[in-house]
Amino acid sequence: MIATATSPGALSKSAPKPRNQTLEMLKRPRISIPLVLLTILVVTSALAPWVAPASPTKMMGAPLLSPGGDHLLGTDDYGRDVLSRLIYAGRVSLGVAIGSVTIAAVFGISLGLMAGYFRGAVEFIIMRSMDLLLSFPTIVLAIAMVAFLGPSIRNLIIIIGIIYTPRFVRVVYGSALVLGDSDFVNAARVIGASDTRILAKAVLPNVMAPIFVQVSLSLGFAILVESGLSFLGLGAQPPTPSWGNMISGARPFMELYPHLLIFPSIVIGLTILMLNTLGDGLRDELDPRLRGSR
Question: For the chain, N or C: smaller number of CB within 10 Å?
Fold first, then answer.
């Protein structure tokens, strides 16, 4: 729903929403269940020094112990506790995903708003640049950029952020393109509101719904890219654990000790599943066309 602005003060108001809409949305199983599970995962990873039963880098038992006993998920080939490494690896994988998506969202929203609102040369330069980035396969572009900048967690955040910026640009651009010619934006121009104020107070609040969905979906894809690069040795460097390099380290032992491969794979799969489910649920709730059809 698009609000109609007739005065400068009206620009700060978005479309009216039912008071209990957010509460009702959180009661939907497709939103509440993944949100709770993801919150538990993030909190557990953030509190890893207090939650993990052992150090992720020190030998805590005999190598290649099966799950059970003092080591709930067993030990790896260096005698390190697998559960502890999974928990600490979450800090790396989730941290990279959150950091990179934050970068992509900040730059993508800004560029998308400018392209959709100002049009002309600004639109052409921004959108053609985004098309150029999108023309390369994601993993190939990531590998090339890591090879140029070097493997490190900081570089990984920057690279994935750059790669996913075009997704946000296109989402915001499409909405801003429609809103740029809307009555309430034209009314804001007539009363003398600046372009910055119009973008911040009138256009941006009305494109937040697709942005929330894109953030959720991009987090899942960012985890997948980070895990793939770490699997190839281009992400977090040993002994720092990440879900991707844990899978890579398990390859020589996957036939005799499959738990080393199964546990990080399950964590990656479930995390991405929860993020995608949350994104689909948000889309269904925030898109007025889908909401109206139910």
Answer: C
